[in-house]
Amino acid sequence: MTNSSWYGPRVSRRAALGLGLGVAAAPALAACGGVSTSGADGGSGSVSFLCTQFAPVEERQRFEQILSNRVTTAKVAYNTADGGVFASTIQSQVEAGKVQVGLVGGLHGELAPHASRLTDLDDLVTALADRGIEADLTDLSKLGGNAAKYIPWMQASYVVAVNKKALQWLPSGADPQKLTYDQLLAWAAAAKAGNGGKAVLGIPAGPKGLYHRFFQGFLLPSFTGGQITTFRSPEAVQAWQYMKELWANTTPASTNYDFMQEPLQRGEVLIAWDHVARLVNAPKEKPDDWLMVPAPRGPKGLGYLLVVVGLGIPRGAPDVDKVKEVIKALTNPDTQLDVLRQNAFFPTVKATLPSDLPPNISLEAAAVQAQQGASEAVLSLPPVGLGAKDGEVSQIFKNTFKEICLDRKPVPQVLDAQAKQLNTILDQLKVPCWKPDPAGQTCKVM
Amino acid sequence: MPRARRRRARLPTPILLIAPSLVFMTALFAWPLVVGVAQAFTGVDGPTLSHAQRMLDDPYFWPAARNTVLLIVVLIPLQFAFALTMALVLRERPRFSGLYFYIWVVPLAISDLAAGLVWLSIFTDRGYLNSVLDRLGVEPYSWLSYEHPTTVFLAVLIAELWRATSLVFVIIVAGLQGIPQDYDEAAAVFGATYWQRLRHVILPQLRPSLQVAMILRTILAFQTFAVAQALAGRDFPLLVGETYHWYNTLQNANVAAVIALVVLGASMVTSVAYLRLLRDRTTEVAT
Amino acid sequence: MSAPAAVRRPPAPAATAPPRPRRSSRRRKAVLLQLACLAITAFMGVPLYLITLAALSSRAALNRFPLSLLPTDLSTETMSRFLDSTGVVPGFVNSLIVGLSTLVFALLVGVPAGYALSRYAFRGRDPYQLFLLLTRALPIVVLSVPLAKVFLTTNLYDTTYAVTLLHTALALPTTVLITAAVFVSVPRDHEEAAAVLGANAAQAFVRVVLPQALPGIAASAMFTFVMSWNEVLGAAILTLNQRTLPAQVLATLADSPLAYRFAGGLALVLPALVFIAVMRKYLVNMWGTTLR
Description:
The structure holds 3 protein chains of 3 kinds.
Chain A: H1 13-30, E1 46-51, H2 57-70, E2 75-80, H3 83-96, E3 103-107, H4 108-111, H5 122-127, H6 135-140, E4 151-156, E5 158-163, H7 181-194, E6 201-202, H8 211-224, H9 234-248, H10 261-266, E7 271-275, E8 290-293, E9 302-305, E10 307-312, H11 320-330, H12 333-343, E11 346-347, H13 359-373, E12 377-380, H14 390-406, H15 411-429
Parallel strand pairs in A: 1-2, 1-3, 6-7, 9-12
Antiparallel strand pairs in A: 3-10, 4-10, 4-11, 5-7, 5-8
Chain B: H1 2-7, H2 13-38, E1 42-43, E2 46-47, H3 50-57, H4 61-91, H5 97-105, H6 112-123, H7 128-135, H8 149-177, H9 181-189, H10 194-205, H11 207-223, H12 226-232, H13 239-249, H14 253-277
Antiparallel strand pairs in B: 1-2
Helix pairs in contact in B: 3-14, 4-8, 4-11, 6-12, 8-11, 8-12, 9-10, 11-14, 13-14
Chain C: H1 23-55, H2 59-62, H3 77-84, H4 88-119, H5 125-137, H6 144-153, H7 160-184, H8 188-196, H9 201-212, H10 214-230, H11 233-238, H12 245-253, H13 258-283
Helix pairs in contact in C: 1-13, 3-13, 4-7, 4-10, 4-12, 5-7, 7-10, 8-9, 10-13, 12-13
């Protein structure tokens, strides 16, 4: 036991020295608080812009290029965050009174819960009156209150992408650009039968998919003429019976699809409905193999939903004047056309579409315009004034789909149960209805 | 013992040693914990159980609870058996054991997202597994479809087994280092078979490491959802996935806090159970 | 040397002595062992190979069916695009700073606590362990807003310090518990022997106990660094312009095309792999000491 040599690993002096130096260096490095990852340290003179859009790598790079080209009054540090981090950041900063983000950009549904945390922008709206932003959008931006809380920045809609390979099963007499829902069903059924029992239609029914917008803005308005008030009307029962049949001819893998452009590119589906920004890459390689068509029509018309992305300023943000300059630059028609060209989001200001758009974007632009300009178009808006309950209302539509199509429960009972839940939420909020439901009354399911 | 007397003179040494960690955790988490947890039971007009009721009424809650428990009950014993096998195999020092060890530890470095991604690309309809089957002439199968819940569960099981066994493996290896070989050899000399040596010599001495590994792994298992979500979305709901869903998508921090408390409660209960069951009696008589 | 004093091999003719394993059965055992290793390596290694393959394939290759399992259509375009995107290199530096700092703090705070747990059966031992586990057992998402507020009010928001502090707190349970478990296997006699030889408590700890507990420390170092390297949510809510790599990149990857997700996944893994390669030496250099 007198052997005093240690029987552990012999850590050589050099190794120990190296380890010690490395270990001591780290806290020293930490002394500089970190290296900036957004190209601007958010300090003097730069505007911190937090946005939920343009997260994918390429879209982000293109948008940052547009920012540096078009926004000359201040350096903009662009940061993206997903919905949850976006909400936490705004809430924690405004409530703590230490706001570091100057400009926030998000979907209408992402800005809605923060109505009380955004500054009023009526003065900016008047300054931008000559840009020609539509009244519908400005109304939406009031978030159910009296003052505008965000400036509508970009808009988008949803269309149907069709791979020309699917045209072989198109029912005779049907025009893809002017489909009805019944024709769509017949087409999907013929395709499934002709493709050896494998369906070719897909919808984004994954966890982050936007399938609830299909029900809110397309299916129900087209069949019932309303979104909320007609939720359990006989026409709604008809609409969901139709959906059940359509689902039988849709690929079941849809419950895993969030974005439809990848299944389309891989050839897993040939016909898909989705948001324009989530379809835009599908025709990129070979635009001639693809068609982009407006959504189908139903008994009450062509229901379609508008997506709005807005720019807001959190309460207590630094350098508000600089931020307003940035907003003005972003709502410039040329800037917005740049965004359309690069990232497939449409302008909110009046701007004539140029003829040199990339082929996939011009395909989409044509479909969107045909949709909006159709004689029987029924404009639907995403829910207005629901605040933090927006997500729960969307969930009700998703649960309705799950119970009717996946769990195969009887339609009238499901609609009654879900209508009750919807009314519980709406009764708490007491907000007026929004398009396509008739305006004025407090919204509830009849 | 002089040491014991010295210890009682001022602050006992153990308290001094654990003080920094206590102070650190309290300073950082005390207030957020209180605020975050209070949300679970605070409504517009004061304390309320309405959020808990809401959570129980949600159609996804009970399936999520069931899936979480099922996953843990099936996965953890499998992982321990697997990790123990790996550690014992390496203990025999086969050739290339250094390389094997490295490859077996690598999944530890891989984030949940990347792990979910790679297993999704294996199991998805047009993924690697179906590619192999297709080349072999077998009809591809929809492993992850909501119509096939069994294969969805198996896929999640396999992916989690791959991702998380390395944690247990490393802890067991670290524990095995300290076990002297003499007892093992002595038992061999006296005629014990491998299994007997394993049961009576090695495993008892591995008990502290196994206890730690069980506690840590179970707590982390309650927390995992990223891989399951990547593979199956909401077809295979899990409790923490629901927490995130209520917090982010449904913007309801109160119900999210209730579910988080359920997870916390379950984790604490199992930890207490492990601490009791796997208690190392010998350290109880420490001076 | 406290080896059981007289354990010598009993003389060969005794009936209780096990027969020496024959050459062929030893070889068979070696072969079986290798087969087991290969099987396990196949399971653990194939997904890693597939990540690398997918990250380095061209985008068109990922859209084909059946997918090729061999590297036939390689292209570094996705990887280089990904590495060029904004903030990847600064994010890498930030992650490195945070990872190493977390390592240092977690070990400084956690190892003494682990020692205390292993040597002393003090009152409050179990509650202390449960308290440590509390922070790991609660989904941190519900703490997003209050936690961010704490750092906003102390002016630490959007610095690597904030993330370091959070990660240290998340790493403490593993560090304390694993080192405790390993310290238990270091016999007290060694410290007492060192005391007899004139060392004080600290010296005894550093020169006798610590080297033997190196595997446990290496294990917790591995876990701490890897956890910190991969942690997303905490880093995302506590920083805005000074982000770590996962906060900068992982959230955006979720919406990116498949090829980028693979490229990002691979790029994120590599530094952690390097760290593990360095640490494993300290983990496995003592496969059962024979000297006690």
